[in-house]
């Protein structure tokens, strides 16, 4: 007597197709597009006041920023999105005085875009390397 595994194979393919369809639905909600990268020229650190590269944009360059020094944003302001194109690592701080007791994160300088910082950025340091 010969048994056939074809029904199990067909059922397995059906389940795989359903799984892929469900995962695709959750992975990319209808109408949701990835955020457009904010404009930031080579050699700049760009900071936006609102998430998704919206709001006022502030730019900083190596020529006008001291390396390894804490640079506070103007009092009462903060950044919610950033792009690092300085070619050097940049650490952003929740603290306006670059204290490490609050949140902080270092981003590589090879072209990093962060549409939503995990905290309000109030200061930064550009590192030598």
Give a quick rundown of the structure:
The protein is α+β, with helices and mostly antiparallel strands and 129 residues long.
Rg (C-alpha, Å): 23 Å
| Helix-strand string | HEEEEEEEE
Unreliable stretches covering 5 or more consecutive residues = 8-28
Identify the CATH class of the domain at 44-126.
Mainly Beta
Q: Which percent range describes the beta-strand content? A: 25-35%
Helix coverage percent of residues? Answer: 10-25%
Main pleated-sheet profile: 4 strands, antiparallel
CATH homolog superfamily of the domain at 44-126: Crystallins
Please work out how many helical segments DSSP would assign.
1
Average pLDDT taken over every residue: 83
- Going across the biggest sheet, name each strand in turn: 2-1-4-7
Reported CATH architecture of the domain at 44-126: Sandwich
Q: How far from one another are the termini?
A: 73 Å
* Total DSSP E strands: 8
CATH topology of the domain at 44-126: Gamma-B Crystallin, domain 1
Structure description:
The chain has 129 residues and is α+β, with helices and mostly antiparallel strands. The protein has a domain at 44-126: Sandwich (Gamma-B Crystallin, domain 1). It contains one helix and eight strands. The chain has a four-stranded antiparallel β-sheet with strand order 2-1-4-7, with no helix packed on it. Strands 3-8-5-6 form a four-stranded antiparallel β-sheet, with no helix packed on it. The termini are far apart. Residues 8-28 have low confidence and may be disordered. It holds the Pfam family Inhibitor_I36. Residues 1-32 form the signal peptide. This is Proteinase inhibitor I36 SMPI. Keywords: Signal.
């Amino acid at each position: 007597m010969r048994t056939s595994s074809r029904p199990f194979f067909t059922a397995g393919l059906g389940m795989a197709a359903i799984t892929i369809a469900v995962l695709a639905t959750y992975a990319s909600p209808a109408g949701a597009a990835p955020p457009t990268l904010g404009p930031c020229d080579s050699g700049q650190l760009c900071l936006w006041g609102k998430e998704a590269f919206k709001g006022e944009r502030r730019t900083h360059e190596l020529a006008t920023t001291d390396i390894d020094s804490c640079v506070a944003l103007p009092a009462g302001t903060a950044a919610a999105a950033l792009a690092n194109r300085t070619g050097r690592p940049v650490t952003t701080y929740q603290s306006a005085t670059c204290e490490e007791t609050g949140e902080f994160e270092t981003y590589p300088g090879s072209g990093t875009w962060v549409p939503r910082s995990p905290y309000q950025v109030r200061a930064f340091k550009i590192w030598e390397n």
